[in-house]
Amino acid sequence: MPAYQDLFRTPEFRPLLLSSTAHLAAQTVAGLALATLVHRATGSPLLTATSMFAPSLAQVVGATFLLSASDRLPPRRTLTALSLAFAATTAALAVPGLPIPVLFLVVLAQGLVAAAGGGVRWGLLTEIVPKSAYITGRSLFNMSAGLTQITGYATAGALVTVLTPHQVLLLSTALHLTAAATAHTGLTPRAPRATGRPSPSATWRTNTLLWSSRPRRLTYLGLWLPNGLIVGCEALYIPYAPDAAGLLLACAALGMLTGDITVGRLLAPATRARLATPLLLLLATPYLVFPLHPPLPVAAACVTLASTGFGATLIQQEHLMSLTPPDLAGHALGLHSAGMLTLQGLSATLSGTLAQLTTPTTAIALLALTSLTTTTALAMAARPTPTPRPH
Asked: How far is CA 334 from CA 64, 77, 135, in A?
């Protein structure tokens, strides 16, 4: 397995990583600032949870109409334009006095713009690194994401206590501009991986092709459903503990980082392949403690332990790539990203609704139980059908 230092010697890997990190840092800071702004203005768990993950809800539109762009647009130009669009829309969110409905429309527009971005980014990664190094490269991206979220949520949690959410959103705008500059100056122009113009019909045809394979279909559902439901739990951190939400989000990122390091670097391939289901079960189980109203240190420990289960995503992504033709890699990864984010947004809305009708802790437990049930059902569906013995 290639080492991390080998990837840093690979041309274009470093600027792609830095640009993606700046983009994620901007989203992390903006997400907490925006949710805090909405919570202070409305006091609603539903609107707070939805505001934090509202861009994810637009991903279903992108998955339906825009994903063909993942392999049909020049990567450098597209990633630069994506970050510039996020900078402009985040600056709009920073305008004081913006009505809540308008705020949600802007956030949904961000999700629509981002729909093709994940496919472009991860498709470019498959071009930059050898196939044998993909899981190592993706692990390093996930580790960077974990560190970025730990730092971003902790920093944003502190900043919203001394600055206004609107000022924190301006900081996010500057980070998006940094991501755009890094992509434009660090990446080299490349031709699209596939020919033809992006179109809704091309997106739909490729989605249908990818979905037609039962093994790919089960892999996608495993990537989308169990962890999407747990993100719904994370969306309730602010209603659950308004003064400690940044800490809980940072603990979740720390757990994710630990899981990615373990899966990406410490486990042998044969061992790794057997651990997807156990990790997904771990992802949900600790949240069943929350209805007992544990002290904050116990809740933080449960969140950290649970989030190590996100390491299952690396195993599932590796399996998805083994089932997908190279010329569809960007589209396939974009569909994974769009579907995952869509389910996260839907789960955040569901968790906010449940919390509105019951309590945040009850909603967290219900989503965790649903995640456990879903993981078990998918594991049973993926078992090979026994071959009948001849009589």
From this structure: 11, 17, 16
CA gap 328, 321 in Å, rounded: 9
Residues 378, 221: Cα–Cα separation, whole Å: 8
pLDDT at 32: 86
Cβ count within 10 A of residue 236: 27
For the CA atoms of 285, 57, 128, 259, what is the dihedral angle to 10 degrees?
-10
pLDDT at 174: 96
Please answer whether residues 173 and 29 qualify as being in contact, where contact means their C-beta atoms are separated by less than 8 angstroms.
no
Alpha-carbon distance of 27 to 21, in angstroms, equals 10
Residue 199 pLDDT: 66
Amino acid making up residue 144: S
| Whole-angstrom Cα Rg for the chain | 20
Is 102 within 8 Å of 227 (Cβ atoms)? no
**For residues 331 and 333, what is the distance between their CA atoms, to the nearest angstrom?**
6
Angle at 169 between CA 230 and CA 18, to 5 degrees: 70
Tokens of residue 161, six digits: 């206590």
Low-confidence ranges of the chain (pLDDT < 50): none
Residues 6 or more apart whose CB falls under 8 angstroms from that of 238 comprise 35, 36, 39, 48, 49, 52, 245
Q: What is the DSSP letter of 30?
A: H
Half-sphere exposure of 45 (CA within 13 A, CB side): 26
Residue range 271-326, pLDDT digits in tens: 888 899 999 999 999 999 999 999 999 999 999 999 999 999 989 988 898 898 87
